[in-house]
Amino acid sequence: MATPLLAIAKIQKKVWDGSLPLEIRLANADCRTYDETDPYLINLPRLSYLPFLLPRLHAFFAPSLINPSTPPHELWLSFQGVPLKYHHPVGLLYDLFSGAPPANPDDDEVDAEETLPWKLELRVQEFPPELMGLDAEGKVVRDCFVNGVKEADVIRNGKGNVYMGLSKNDSDVLWEAVKTHNLQRFNTINNKLLNPPGTPLRNIPMKIYLPTAPSIINPEEGGDSTIQASIRTVQSLVAPFSGTRMFALVYYTRLLLGNMN
Question: Is residue 178 a part of any domain in this protein?
Answer without folding.
Answer: yes
